[in-house]
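Minutes, project check-in
Item: structure for the 281-residue chain
Input as provided by the requester:
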Amino acid sequence: MLNTYKLNTLILRGFIYIILFVLLIVTIVPIWLLIVNSTRSTVEIQQGLSFMPSTHLVENYGILLGRGLNLWRGFFNSLFVAVASTILTVYFSMLTAYGIVVYNFKGKRLFSNFIVVLVMIPMQLSIVGFYQYMSKLGLTDNFASLILPTIASAGSVFFGKQYLESVVIKDLIDAGRVDGASEFSIFHSIMMPIALPGAVTMGIFAFIASWNNFFNAFILISSLERYTLPMLVQTLRGDVYRTEYGAIYLGLAFTVVPIIIIYTIFSRYIVSGIAMGSVKE
């Protein structure tokens, strides 16, 4: 009976490993082909698939520069917006979530439910009013219109609330109050170190969302020198670039590689943060 159980366990484990391996291949192969094609010429790409890099990377980059497409400007624009948005999102979302979890106040349940409703409302439904609001504030064609709204990120507040509910130790908060620490000092010196995995996880999601944010930037930004990287990549669909597939893949690779680097560095925080946030005592 025991041997049968072990055999079934090994079969199940092997089946799971096979599924995970297939999913890994499905995930990695498109990204690898994107990077490989960015090093190939248009003629090589038209000849068929190849999993080995070629030698036309510099040539493709020269094509982009020759068309007036400043990828580095777009890269730094996206980096500035993504980093600033991530910092504001993580700090204010964690601060709001901390207030909801720790304090008891009238209308707390209603406020929490309202955040859930905001999470389910797509941005596209409110973009007209949002654009008019930004226009009245004089923030159109300005990075501030992409950065400041992240202070009120309902999705991040919801994630932070779910995470803090599993890690908050109210005895530590009470001990900090007894020692005379202010509420902000307790949040910064006690709660943030405890919630670091969740904060990093939230920051990664916020960074990726801001980096890939094309819709808002397309609506609010009009000056070419303020274009973010996804907006510049969108211009590759013009007639001028129709046959320069290598240059197109290189432009797309510019948008993907930073996300891969960020994920590689902080992936362990994603796993621990999500796992901790999903367990409640």
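Outcome recorded: The chain has two domains: 2-60, 68-277.
No further action items on this chain.
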